[in-house]
Amino acid sequence: MPWPVYLALKQLFPTGRVSFFTLISVVGVGLGVALMLVSTSVMGGFGHQIERMIIDTQGEVQIRARGLMEPTPELEKTIAAVPGVAAFAPFAQGIVMIDHANHPALPVIQGYDIERMKKVIPLEKYIVEGSVDDLDDDSVILSSVLAYNIGAHVGAKVSIYTPLMLKRANQQELLLPRVVRVAGIFRIGHQQLDSSTVICGLRLMQDLYGLRHQVHGYNVRLQPGASPDGVAAKLNLALIADAEVMTWFESNADFQAVLSFERNMIFFLLTFIIIVAAFSITSSLLVTVVRKTREIGLLGAMGGRARDVAICFCLQGLSVGLAGTAVGLAGGRALLYYRNEIVHVIARATMGEGTFVKFYQFSSLPAYTANRDVVLIIVFSILASTLAGLIPAWRAARLKPVEALRSE
Amino acid sequence: MSDPVPVLRAAGLRKTYPSGDRTLGVLAGVGLAVAPGESVSIRGESGSGKSTLLNLLAGLDRPDAGELFWRTEAAHQLSLGELTRRRARFLGMVFQAYYLIPEIDALANVLMAARLAGPVGAAERERAAALLRRVGLAERGHHPPAHLSGGERQRVAVARALMNRPAVILADEPTGNLDERTGDEAIELLLGVCAEERTALVLVTHNAAHAAKTARQLYLHNGQLA
């Protein structure tokens, strides 16, 4: 083993022990790495969960008509022929007024061809009461907060008022509100969707809006591994100019940008923890250089080159970085593994678990660790620790043996 | 028959240091030749330049003028980097304050000299152990310096200086931190092992009795050796 490596390891771990400097420095870097890993993973978890929710409620790709479109067999044949498309289902949507026991609300209503929708949108996994199978042309499924706000439950009758009624009233016609049964209640976990959404069959939606057979577009589910961007581009080429094809990411671009910004800001702010840890490494190593000035002089007197002395101190920074990163990754993984237990303990100790779940709308903390983030954290922490060793190394290398040996 | 080429030769070494707006002359043309295996002591008053001379002989510092030869090599013409590279094999040093590395045990301290000179293998480990045996520390090889007495530390330093079979050992007041009896033992040991290893010794000391034990005694006064 080259002597700079040997001596660096011996100074970090003298005679099998871990020196105090090593321990503090490794813990400092480890804490930074663990915090970065946990926070990026939790942010990634929220992002991933929201991504799954968006895809589960609209598919990876959405074809939107500029106005209305006829769901002709030719059109559907064209869509089906595009490579990467696994399934697709037409939809129509609008805004209605819904009323139950004099509790009105103005939700978004989405009508689907129920049988085809099941292949695109796994709504059944979000049903908390009732069943998708009970949905017919005289029933609707309500989002959980909407159902709570108007006091409706499964089996209740609700009245739906549509813009078509106003149109008919202008023509001196009276169109009565449509009374439908609540077939189910869903909760997705997305505040906007849960607070004000009604799902119904496509025929009911077409009746409510007077669309005849027309639809507003298609939700498209892709084959595993297919690129949403690639399929969207092919669909855009294949379809008529009156339709616009967007990926789930494009149709939620603003929301994604906010998420991405938040994630990057947290990552940026947490990098300062590692930078502070790196400064502590620099400070400790500088103290070591001063304390060991005569030893450094001795190494020079015994034939040790200045470059090797510098390498010795750089390696100490690198070793602390490696050990701290390993400790931080292990600690971060452990924190992520027990995250829900930790959150529940904090919730119980502060606001109470029930309030916590109600307020934050989640009972378990999501986590998703992207490989890219892990690589970024590892590279950053090791780089910062190694750079932290550079200043002490440079100072040690500049010491002249004869002056170092004379120092008091 | 001894080698006619001196292992260490200095001629006309001059060294001055700035002192305020004046220049302080420390060495004023020192000449010295040390034969292989020869022991030479240098005494002198405090501040007479003994340590400065030793640093120049070791190539740790540059003379203002003069020539220095390590065997036949003109050391004064080499860069400090070159001198550092050659120093590991050519000479060993013993200091008053021992300068052992505290994080490693006595055996590892001795082996450190070999590590600085190149790869360490079984032969080097065996030599380090043998040197520790020779200096009477066979049982103390795995003790850290903090667990050794001053005399024991200096014996480890002597073993370390001999590790690479240097041509010459430069010892700067090696008994300065030791009591009289331990100091006597350290000098006896140093002279003994240098003689066994056919290593020349340049001993800087204040102690006239220790100096008298070397083959040749010199005195540094007014920047000149006599």
Count of discrete domains of chain A: 2
- Helices and strands of chain A, in N-to-C order? HHEHEEEEHEEHEHEHEHEHEHHHHHHHH
Using the 3D structure, state the CATH architecture of chain B: 3-Layer(aba) Sandwich
**Relative helix content of chain B:** 25-40%
Most extensive interface, chain pair and sizes: A-B, 25 and 29 residues
Low-confidence stretches of chain B: none
- The total count of helices of chain A amounts to 17
Structural class label of chain A: alpha+beta
Description:
The complex is a heterodimer of chains A (408) and B (226). Chain A has helices at residues 3-12, 20-58, 73-81, 114-117, 144-150, 163-170, 191-195, 202-209, 228-238, 248-251, 253-291, 293-301, 306-337, 339-349, 353-360, 371-398, 401-406, and strands at 61-69, 85-95, 97-100, 103-105, 108-112, 127-130, 139-143, 157-161, 178-186, 197-201, 215-222, 243-247. In chain A, helix 1 (3-12) packs across helix 13 (306-337) and helix 13 (306-337) packs antiparallel against helix 16 (371-398). In chain A, strands 1, 2, 3, 4, 5, 6, 7, 8, 9, 10, 11 and 12 form a twelve-stranded mixed beta sheet that branches. The longest helix of chain A has 39 residues, at 20-58. Chain A has two domains: 3-50 and 256-406, no CATH class; 61-225, no CATH class. Chain A is built from 17 helices and twelve strands. Chain A is 58% helix and 18% strand. In chain A, a hairpin with a 2-residue loop joins strand 3 and strand 4. Chain B is built from seven helices and ten strands. A six-stranded mixed beta sheet of chain B has the order 6-7-8-3-9-10, sandwiched between helices. In chain B, a hairpin with a 2-residue loop joins strand 1 and strand 2 (22-34). Chain B starts with 7 loop residues before the first strand and ends with a strand. The model of chain B has no long low-confidence stretch (mean pLDDT 87). The interface between A and B is medium-sized, with 25 and 29 residues.
